């Protein structure tokens, strides 16, 4: 091959890598359309660029799981030892209800990379979807051992423990998640539910208020639960137990408590599930409710550049 041809190939690879880096940067910023366009340009220049297919699949997974699976499969065909691609395909397959295929993929990811924390996390998420909470706890615990600062693993293990009605253990996990990521709204919300079920009503009230203040639109039910608790006999009884004086939580919430009041927020407790509860357990942005976040996929384990 002559020097001119080599220069042309190297130029294409350099351009493909530049496009890949741009696509990855905008993916991290959440601009899916721009990311997909840039990564598509990268694979057009370098058709064997497995990493570009992988991350295009991650972007597509936010839009269409079936299309994402196609890209993950191409990445695996180009690089059969691509643990991260197997893990991502497992997540997408799980969302489409293909639990058998998802388990095969995540098992392969762990086989290829035995200390791959995100694969254990992914396996835990599949078990959560199947409501195998004991198994899920085992996998999340392994993920935490390998990656102790992964807030999502603590949050999901807390949800699994709630599924087993181990509310005190769940509270501990949500608290650890918040120690790592103080802005994790789902952890505040789910800790509020766990605290209320465990009888810690004042703590539950504060967590409901915090979740609603951080995200009043998504967590309108947190606002509703906080409203309900202000007139709750259980909260009054806890205050009576903890204090010699009678203090009644009679002041209703206002916008200073929880930020902007959500639209369609109930003002009457009778609208809240018979005037008692309004629980909607939330996950931390993984395939239990949606695809995993960018960080949940774990570190790159494939080729560093275009092939």
Task: Considering the chains and any ligands shown, give keywords for the structure.
307 residues; Serine Threonine Protein Phosphatase 5, Tetratricopeptide repeat
Largest sheet: none
Low-confidence sequence ranges: 242-279, 284-291
Return the CATH class of the domain at 1-80: Mainly Alpha
Helix content: 55-70%
Q: Over all CA atoms, what is the radius of gyration?
A: 23 Å
Morphology = elongated
Q: Kindly, what is the distance between the CA atoms of the first and last residues, rounded to a whole number of angstroms?
A: 17 Å
Based on secondary structure, the structural category is mainly alpha
Overall pLDDT, averaged?
80
Q: What fraction strand?
A: under 5%
Please report the number of helical segments: 16
Helices and strands in order:
Elements: H1 3-28, H2 32-45, H3 50-60, H4 65-78, H5 83-95, H6 99-112, H7 117-129, H8 133-146, H9 151-163, H10 167-180, H11 185-198, H12 201-214, H13 220-230, H14 233-242, H15 255-258, H16 273-276
Question: How would you characterize the overall build of this protein?
Answer:
The chain has 307 residues and is mainly alpha-helical. The protein has a domain at 1-80: Tetratricopeptide repeat domain (Serine Threonine Protein Phosphatase 5, Tetratricopeptide repeat). Helices cover 66% and strands 0% of the residues. The chain has 16 helices and no strands. It has helices at residues 3-28, 32-45, 50-60, 65-78, 83-95, 99-112, 117-129, 133-146, 151-163, 167-180, 185-198, 201-214, 220-230, 233-242, 255-258, 273-276. α7 runs antiparallel to α8 (133-146). It is elongated. Mean pLDDT is 80; it is low at 242-279 and 284-291.
């Amino acid at each position: 091959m002559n020097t001119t041809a080599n220069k042309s190939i190297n130029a294409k690879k350099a351009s493909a890598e530049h496009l890949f880096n741009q696509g990855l940067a905008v993916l991290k910023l959440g601009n899916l359309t721009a990311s997909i366009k840039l990564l598509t340009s990268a694979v057009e220049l370098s058709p064997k660029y497995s990493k570009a297919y992988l991350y295009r699949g991650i972007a597509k997974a936010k839009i269409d799981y079936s299309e994402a699976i196609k890209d993950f499969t191409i990445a695996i065909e180009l690089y059969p030892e691509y643990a991260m691609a197997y893990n991502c395909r497992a997540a997408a397959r799980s969302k489409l209800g293909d639990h058998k295929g998802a388990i095969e993929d995540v098992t392969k990811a762990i086989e290829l990379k035995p200390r791959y924390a995100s694969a254990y996390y992914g396996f835990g998420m599949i078990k959560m979807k199947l409501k195998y909470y004991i198994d899920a706890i085992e996998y999340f615990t392994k993920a935490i051992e390998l990656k102790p600062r992964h807030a999502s693993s603590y949050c999901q293990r807390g949800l699994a423990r709630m599924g087993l009605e181990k509310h005190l253990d769940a509270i501990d996990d949500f608290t650890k998640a918040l120690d790592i990521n103080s802005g994790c709204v789902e952890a505040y919300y789910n800790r509020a539910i766990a605290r209320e079920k465990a009888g810690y009503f004042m703590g539950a009230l504060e967590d409901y208020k915090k979740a609603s203040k951080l995200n009043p639109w998504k967590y309108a039910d947190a606002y509703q639960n906080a409203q309900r608790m202000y007139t709750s006999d259980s909260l009054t009884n806890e205050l009576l137990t903890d204090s010699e004086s009678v203090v009644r939580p009679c002041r209703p919430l206002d916008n200073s408590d929880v930020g902007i009041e959500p639209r369609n927020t109930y003002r009457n407790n009778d609208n809240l599930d018979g005037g008692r509860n309004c629980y909607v357990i939330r996950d931390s942005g993984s395939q239990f409710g949606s695809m995993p976040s960018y960080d949940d996929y774990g570190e790159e384990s494939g080729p560093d550049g275009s092939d």
